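Hi F.,

I've been meaning to write this up properly since the lab meeting, where we talked about keeping a consistent format for the predictions we share between groups. The idea is simple: the sequence comes first, exactly as it goes in, then the structure tokens exactly as they come out, then a line or two of notes. No screenshots and no reformatting. I'm using this chain as the first example so we have something concrete to point to.
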Amino acid sequence: MLKSDGSIARGWVVVEAGQIVSVRSTKPRDVEHAISTGGVILPGLIDLHGHPEYNVFAAWEPPRVYINRGRWRDSDEYDQLIKKPWATLTSGGKSVSVKTAMTRYAEVRAAVGGVTAIQGASQDYPNKTEALVRNVDLLIFGSQVARSTVDFDRLDDDGVESIRKGIFDTKTVKAHYVHLAEGQKTNQTSVNEYLKFTASPLFSEATVMIHGTALSRAHFDQLAAVGGKLVWSPQSNLRLYNETTDIGAALAAGVPVALGADWMPSGSPSLLHEMKVAWQVITQTALPVTPPDLVRMVTSGAAEIAGLADKIGTLEVGRAADLTILQKRMDDPYQNVVSAYPSWVEMVIIGGDIIYGRPDWVAELSIPADYEQVTAWGRPMLLDTRFGSPDDAGIDGPPRRLAQMRAKLIARYPAVGPIFA
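Output, unedited:
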């Protein structure tokens, strides 16, 4: 079991009313159900960079290397492979019912990969309370603590002022996720985007910069000086630009770093997959980053960056019972997490509710008949996607079952990317 201050070889987590009420090294005797998992129990993974609605697509094969984000977004190949299918799925952005299926499908993809909190969902998200998987920049634990900006140069004065007030006046915005400097290191346009942001009233300790691939140590020193943070998405960077963020320079500057899988078209199919790419970059460049450091980037460190460290990210009493349980295939639990794939995920719990799990464990802890049977990478698993879905299928809202989501999406766009592949 992984805690914020290390691991327990044989640990037990006790959950009650959606919260962690005890973390101990001995088996509890005062609980109704106690399962010895034999696996690695860790806080639910936190993916701090994504575009979930686009995760209905299959992976895109970029035909060439681009100099910055603007070049691939303006390309004919992107228009054919992403923009036109998006319009087909959303009917020009007006088909709310299909969008709810898209967002819930993306949540399922995240959950079966061990993720319990994501970033990047749009304001069209289906549920005004909590969605199936927590959204760090929308409503979470009853309030909104973050804002997101994809294109800073498209923010008008009112938009800038609204975010500024949240950061400095009302102090309700603890994290402002903003895509910046996404391009090759020789690309001055990408650097200028960052410099323009630093001259704005939004450059502050709330800044959570996504990408920063074009930046150097001096830029990261500047970010660290105001208390800013960074989210790293190496797979998407490498596929689009053949380069990724100078993560060594960012860490040396003292910038806190989290990890994000970005999106399916150019990123990784799961956060666990993204960790493999990050670890490859770390080992190839001999960075002083250990498996515990990398695990922290998707758990406690990510929660701190998100302004949610008092709620999620650690196995501590009083935290939300967001748990991921992995098969234990290695003696070192941290290396086990770094090496894990979604097929290793045994159970995912969000707020004390089992979202996804082994049938025998679900039978012990819940009512299997309430769950949908799925075949996940060759083995039977149970999935519960009812949260936030209306009982009446005629009411506009996210479909209640994965099979219904697939049917709705495939009817509109047959090339929907699979989850269990």
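Notes:
The chain has 14 helices and 20 strands.
The domain at 1-421 is CATH 3.20.20.140 (TIM Barrel).

If this format works for you, I'll send the rest the same way.

G.
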